[in-house]
User: What shape does this take?
Amino acid sequence: MSAATTTPAVKSTSKGKEHQEYTEPAKKFSGVIKENYLNGVDFSFSILEQGMKVFNTQVDKMFDLEKECVTNVSEFYKDIPLANGNTKKVAGQFNKYIDIQKEQIKSTRSISEKLTKDAHTVTHGNVEKTFGLFGDYLDLFKVN
Assistant: This one.
């Protein structure tokens, strides 16, 4: 009877070694994959951020040109006498337009920066969870 009890113990030990032979390299390999995947995510988000910086620079230049154009037009209207004599009202409307544009640009930038930051954080969290679940899945094959 003691021979029967020692034989299963030997088998479970060999199964445990077999398990380790397969799961340990798989865990190490998945760690490398996870690290490379996270590096790829970081790289892609850094490219996105650089693209946003270029876009923001273009928007600033476009806004400056638009502002200059509106200033020139409003200066032009200041010199032309209108029938009702209310040239300041026309110039004021142009200034209001510039202020609205400035606020739109500001809110769009803050939304896009927040969205990018949140997407980066969520992506990192999802990768961590996915590879954590993969490790948990490999642990299910352990034989005691």
